[in-house]
Amino acid sequence: MGNFRRVPVGIVGASGYGGVQLVRLLMDHPEVEVVYLGGESSAGKPFGELYPHLAHAVNLPVEEVDPEIIGDRTEVVFLSLPNGLACEMAPKLLEKGCLVLDLSADYRFTDLTTYTNWYNKQRTDSATAATAVYGLPELYRSRIAEAQLIGCPGCYPTASLLALSPLLKQGLIIPETAIVDAKSGTSGGGRQGKINLLLAEADNSLGAYGVTRHRHTPEIEQICSDLAGHEVMIQFTPHLIPMVRGILATVYATLRDPGLVRDDLITIFRAFYRNSPWVRICESGEYPQTKWACGSNMCYIGLEVDPRTGRVIVMSAIDNLIKGQAGQAIQCMNIMMGWDETLGLPKLGFYP
Amino acid sequence: MGNFRRVPVGIVGASGYGGVQLVRLLMDHPEVEVVYLGGESSAGKPFGELYPHLAHAVNLPVEEVDPEIIGDRTEVVFLSLPNGLACEMAPKLLEKGCLVLDLSADYRFTDLTTYTNWYNKQRTDSATAATAVYGLPELYRSRIAEAQLIGCPGCYPTASLLALSPLLKQGLIIPETAIVDAKSGTSGGGRQGKINLLLAEADNSLGAYGVTRHRHTPEIEQICSDLAGHEVMIQFTPHLIPMVRGILATVYATLRDPGLVRDDLITIFRAFYRNSPWVRICESGEYPQTKWACGSNMCYIGLEVDPRTGRVIVMSAIDNLIKGQAGQAIQCMNIMMGWDETLGLPKLGFYP
Amino acid sequence: MGNFRRVPVGIVGASGYGGVQLVRLLMDHPEVEVVYLGGESSAGKPFGELYPHLAHAVNLPVEEVDPEIIGDRTEVVFLSLPNGLACEMAPKLLEKGCLVLDLSADYRFTDLTTYTNWYNKQRTDSATAATAVYGLPELYRSRIAEAQLIGCPGCYPTASLLALSPLLKQGLIIPETAIVDAKSGTSGGGRQGKINLLLAEADNSLGAYGVTRHRHTPEIEQICSDLAGHEVMIQFTPHLIPMVRGILATVYATLRDPGLVRDDLITIFRAFYRNSPWVRICESGEYPQTKWACGSNMCYIGLEVDPRTGRVIVMSAIDNLIKGQAGQAIQCMNIMMGWDETLGLPKLGFYP
Amino acid sequence: MGNFRRVPVGIVGASGYGGVQLVRLLMDHPEVEVVYLGGESSAGKPFGELYPHLAHAVNLPVEEVDPEIIGDRTEVVFLSLPNGLACEMAPKLLEKGCLVLDLSADYRFTDLTTYTNWYNKQRTDSATAATAVYGLPELYRSRIAEAQLIGCPGCYPTASLLALSPLLKQGLIIPETAIVDAKSGTSGGGRQGKINLLLAEADNSLGAYGVTRHRHTPEIEQICSDLAGHEVMIQFTPHLIPMVRGILATVYATLRDPGLVRDDLITIFRAFYRNSPWVRICESGEYPQTKWACGSNMCYIGLEVDPRTGRVIVMSAIDNLIKGQAGQAIQCMNIMMGWDETLGLPKLGFYP
């Protein structure tokens, strides 16, 4: 391999589910080397103590979080922290020359007022925030390629936007009729001891939450508005499903042209995503199951038109921790580094 | 007990999940005695061989299905058969003087053309069908009280209609905006060896099916049209959820009066269901979980209004095998017999 | 009903899974009335706020825990508290004349040294403890009938002892060969936010815990020793299973008489339990599934003999929260009150 | 890459869970190319129709099974067929010069009488069978390296033998005291529509099956006898667990030397497996969870000694479809081809 050198990367917030997914994927990435894992509460412990199943393969400690040191040791930093922390760290890391991929909500919004309203936090880094690019490669590939700071999308927005984008971009639907009924596994709730996430509570049960007020709503709307060219409001309802991983977004919208049939839309979607290796449009009459996407970075999209009601129904399935989180961030890194977008990412789902 | 006599009841199709749920509930019902269990493929076997956990309590064989004999031995008959079989048997049982509660789709439709279109079966019993009453007591209590033949609602229609009825009956929504995104446990698929219902396939997965063409659509529409006073089309999408029991229907519709708030609707729903012991409207801000309903005949309904979009979101949760099937049939029987509607039915869910 | 009066009962520790199961069962018990619910952290809240699905049926507040007041208002008290608390309260309740059924470990041991060694707590109530009876009715029915204080068995010991008792009592096995490999659903871990009980961690996983040192070991051994007539050591290994409810104990032991066959043992077990309505010995070749027991107070026992190895294998299945906890306590109460042992308890499992 | 050539491999029986796991792993293997997929019932269909989630990546049809043609086109053949079919095909494939890895039971037994007794099939290929090597690399690495035909171990035997081998090989236990209480996810039952494998039946339930007579018993005993140097009988009991993947074997045996402590055994096991990259011995006091192994080819082994009873308890966890089936076969292929044993196999489990 001669003078081959792997790019040193760091993960801040390595102890959560997003973090461990990043570790697992980046350890197998052919161009990078994980050299730093950071965490607050677990600092000082070997990573293998948090996740014993990785102890044989990940011989790194969890270290304290010091942007100065991280900046010295790494070229790419993934921030997998609770909302409101990345915006404190990112400016320093950027100054040190790192590429920064933030998995929280901190750099997803072009208008920080929206952020402040929905996340209850004043922001002082508006100059930095203005340079951030929304990390959904299927929509913003070229801008991601030139960015130094990425606000990676939320899990629900990823599934929702991949379903909605071709429709909005091409003006096929009446935007205000769009409804996203989303369903997620409980790993989306994180590795924290909440009663409602216990197996005894969540298993064999199902319910909606955050109805009309989930924080992913303004994020979905921001991108939909960008695509539609005018302000769009979306009805978004998340549900907790008794499973570990996976998101299904079932999207309803009224077609402008009631003459469109299913196969027209399949053609349109395939054209829209023809350069997107991580999106697959299902065959006619085939609907995606979340298990298909589990373990891969794929998004599967199924389409149906109801000639009786004039609505299109789009179903998109992802693994919430991969395409919905860690995998997508790595996809963005690949693009930023000029590598193939698929590098080091799992293409084949884990089935059954 | 003096001359107390329990009413003899029979169950045809006792071997399926609907059947075993009927057996379990009717065995504990204080006014009836299960005297007959019928089945095709399992005829001749003791019932305890099909369900060994009931062998100590249910000492009955599964018998062949002969309407003549069933009519002689029972006064109330529950038909829990695949679609298209009840309509062959019910006329004979009615002639013998039995009350008949059919859990299939055969007697749910006032217009048999709809049935024939969606279920691919010609019908020759239109005179009988014309006497059937749709067995949703919360809507048709008084007609059920006088009926001899009940077409018990499907599981999805039960959850959907209990959520939609107050809105449609009082003209609160624009009917054509109504969307029902429904989610069901896999027991709704019955006790049959289908690949997609295997634990290895269905667990930790989630997907829609029958999109735009599920057979419960015309059933929901028929009752919605009756309530609205004119023909109504509903968007209905069912999903298979990795759990055994339970249905959640998430219903979206645009309010006619955008000034209505959540608590207005809670008041309206509570008034609508004030005489319905099996429906509970959740507190303000509380959303039902299917586990709440599991093991009881309850339907829990939660309400939310989105002032931004002008939509109401109604969530209703039931146990698909109890309020969605066997329990509701027994509720109907109670009404037909002049008993208290709650007699012999479980009020307290099985939690956790 | 004339001068019929229900017996007033109280539940201390109503907010946990044992507590809510007691509430659910006692609400349907024909001879008692729940008049008091107590809890520390939830005192002051309506019970329906902790378990919204019961709000329509249980109109009681959670009250502070004052033995004086509880003693005045109730005749029977169920204590469903963490270990080490019941022994502080029980003496006062007994003094007030209450029957006390303790679901914790506090009154399970005849030798308090064992308790202190395994539970790290000094005890000052040895006089009270000496009057306690171990609440496994299948073994100690007549002593329970005369007791005022019951130490209800743990969930694992219930399943284990019902499998082992006929073998030990009749000297059929070599006691020191006995191994109990036990498997439990996660509700046994209680309603607390522990990481390892999260659905995301526990679902689709399986592991042993407390190997060689689980606190149910000395409890099992105490009763086994009592049955064998000499001190017996048992190998006990619990496992956490990705399900909500249910325990299966798989018991291995070497037969003294290698000529015994399966059907001999079935006969012996049936004779042993002939007066025990809550134990069912499976048919020859039939092995119990925990789902059979789920929702009922039943224990199902299956038997197999391996002629090659000379071992008997006994499998016993219970619902850990019913026969393993709340149901068994009520069974004891029935016996103490002179009622039928089956009164108010569910006989038919909740299937599927 | 110059004249780099991938080795052409074929999979017969590609439609089952073992088959799809082979496809997924072999597609990512750097030295091979999957050129043939065979199946009986699915012949003629594109593989992507059986598993739509792989349609974007696996562009191969399922072809009819003709050993002549398979032999011409491939150098390595994996047979993933029901028992009794491989022995019809393997001789022809070997004659054509292929390396053959059989995942069924057909070539696991050195004594075909045992096979015939337990699998009810007469065999006519004893000369071929005599050349087969049992494909457990941790025990038979050097023989595998020289074999042309491998009988890959069953899933339960893999977990059981990795736990038992160091103990038996070093004479640390009394062999006849060994008991294997094994627990498996339902994917081990295959992709077939059996009632007991339905989610509605298997979820939230647990039971033993095949007690004293499971076909993996003689397989475990054959290898144990080989290790012990004399005939050994093992008590083996499998259980079905409500999860998709994973096996945990809990092994009990009496130590010859009661003075051995846990850390002695950890040292012994680590020495035994020091050249086995796919086995990890847990830290002292750490017990493996099946989820740790899920998605990787790892086997995690935990150890405990009970000084009270003189028994060792060994717990081993694997992914039944990877280390228990497809992954292990590929591990064998790597060894046969002279490649690194870890080539192309996942080292990092899929968590959570």
UniProtKB/TrEMBL annotation, chains A, B, C, D:
Domain Semialdehyde dehydrogenase NAD-binding: residue ranges: 8-147
MF (Gene Ontology): N-acetyl-gamma-glutamyl-phosphate reductase activity
KW Ribonucleoprotein (keyword) present: no
E.C. number(s) listed in UniProt: 1.2.1.38
Active-site residues annotated for this sequence: C155
SUPFAM superfamilies: Glyceraldehyde-3-phosphate dehydrogenase-like, C-terminal domain, NAD(P)-binding Rossmann-fold domains
Pathway this chain belongs to: Amino-acid biosynthesis; L-arginine biosynthesis; N(2)-acetyl-L-ornithine from L-glutamate: step 3/4
A Pfam cross-reference name: Semialdhyde_dhC_1
Subcellular location: Cytoplasm
Keywords, comma-separated and alphabetical: Amino-acid biosynthesis, Arginine biosynthesis, Cytoplasm, NADP, Oxidoreductase
NCBIfam families in the cross-refs: argC
Annotated family: Belongs to the NAGSA dehydrogenase family. Type 1 subfamily.
Name of the protein described by the UniProt record: N-acetyl-gamma-glutamyl-phosphate reductase
UniProt organism field: Plectonema radiosum NIES-515
Gene, per the UniProt record: argC
